[in-house]
Structure formats: C-alpha cells, structure tokens
Write a structure and sequence with these properties.
With 222 residues, this protein is α/β, with parallel strands linked by helices. The chain has one domain: P-loop containing nucleotide triphosphate hydrolases (Rossmann fold). Helix content is 35%, strand content 20%. A six-stranded parallel β-sheet has the order 1-8-7-2-6-3, sandwiched between helices. The chain has a two-stranded antiparallel ribbon with strand order 4-5. α6 crosses α7. The radius of gyration is 17 Å and the shape is globular.
Length: 222
C-alpha cells in the first residue's frame, strides 16, 4: 500500500478528507488493523489521530504511546525526570505487548492507558477497545525507531504515517503547547529547543521507514 519512495520520501500535502479516505481503506470488517502515526514532537500527530478516530467512529479507537510514560515518581528515582519524553522514559515492552494483543484480536475488551497532559501522568485502563473494533490508531514519536526495544512496536503496525509539517510551524506549536500546560515562555522555548529537539532529531531520522510522509493543513481541532 506504500506510495512513498523510501530512499527519498517527499512530503505529500493531503486534505483531511483524503487522509480519512486512506485510513478508511484499512478497515476490513471482522479483521483488526493498526495504523501508526508518528513524527517529531509538535508535528500534529495527536491532533490528526484524534480527528481521524472521530471521523471514523465507531470503527476506530485511539491508543497512544504516551499512555506508557513512566510515572514521574519512577523517573525521579531513575534520574530521568529532566528528560521526560526521551525514548528510555517509556514502558516500551508494555506498549509493544498491548499492540500485539490488539493486533491478535483474540480476546474480549482490552483496556489501554491514556496520558493526561494536565496531570502530566498516565491513567491506566482508561480506554476500552471493543473486540469488534476493526481499526486501532496509535500515535507517538518512536513508532519507527529500531533501537532500545522499539522495533517490537513496529512489528504490530500495518501502515505507518510520518507527519512532517514545516519545521518552524512544528517548533511554534510545540512551544505553545508547553506554555498551555504551565511553562513560562522562556522555559517552554528552552525545553522545545533542548530535550525535545534531541528527541525530534532521532525521530526525523525514521521518516524513510514510513509508508506515507504527509502534512495535513486542515485538521479539525474539535
């Protein structure tokens, strides 16, 4: 199904309706598919994934990588709190195992965690996935990373999209998001250009592994 030259992937500018059509093409009644949406911090992954699921309901449900953030108390104990969001600050195995369970579609309701940005913590068993839901949309930074155990995540994904807006827009969105959740303008800028930028460079290197590299300008915000 890939439409991308994996050696030289070009960004495809899709309307939101076209993105919905492509996601809908993955839906096969009685089967379970997983669409993975990735990209650097601030790319618009969460907004796109949520809007797709809303458009495809009740045939799709959103399960996020961010639901597997390690708790802040654990990060403090590990000395990683100041790097929250880096690849080694997630329960990678837990995420990979959940996707494998969902892909197998061999049991009843499966409950997934979600991340509450206002609390800055994950909430367990917050997202019920019904056994007859044909499409799982999952989103996160590291879906196409091979190192550190992340390769097991990729094994469960049927199609992967890499969201790649213009870099200045991505950075602007990211800084604004940090401010919305309590950081000062200076702290938001420093985090986006520091910890987040290191993660962004790692993620950007994975775009050649995606089935589709895209930018969607007209994503509904609600």
């Amino acid at each position: 199904m890939s439409t991308v030259d994996h050696d030289h992937p070009r960004v495809q500018d899709l309307t939101f309706d076209r993105a919905v059509e492509r996601a809908r093409s993955l839906i096969v009644p009685g089967q379970r598919r997983i669409l993975g949406i990735t990209g650097s911090p601030g790319a618009g992954k969460s907004t796109l994934a949520s809007a797709l699921v809303n458009a495809l309901a009740p045939d799709a449900v959103l399960v996020t990588m961010d639901g597997f953030h390690l708790a802040n108390s654990v990060l403090n104990a590990l000395g990683r709190r100041d790097r929250k969001g880096a690849p080694d600050t997630f329960d990678i195995s837990g995420y990979a195992l959940l996707l494998a369970r969902l892909r197998a579609q061999g049991e009843g309701i499966v409950y997934a965690p979600e991340f509450n940005r206002a609390m800055d913590e994950s909430i367990g068993s917050a997202v019920p996935v019904m056994p007859d839901t044909p499409l799982i949309v999952t989103e996160g930074n590291y879906l196409l990373v091979d190192e550190g155990g992340w390769g097991a995540v990729r094994e469960s994904i049927d199609e992967s999209w890499f969201v790649a807006p213009p870099e200045d827009l991505r950075l602007e969105r990211l800084i604004r998001r940090h401010e919305q959740f309590g950081l000062s303008a200076e702290a938001a800028d420093a985090w986006a250009r520091g910890t987040d930028q290191k993660n962004a460079e790692l993620v950007a290197a994975t775009r050649t592994r995606a089935d589709l590299v895209l930018s969607v300008a007209d994503i509904p915000l609600a």
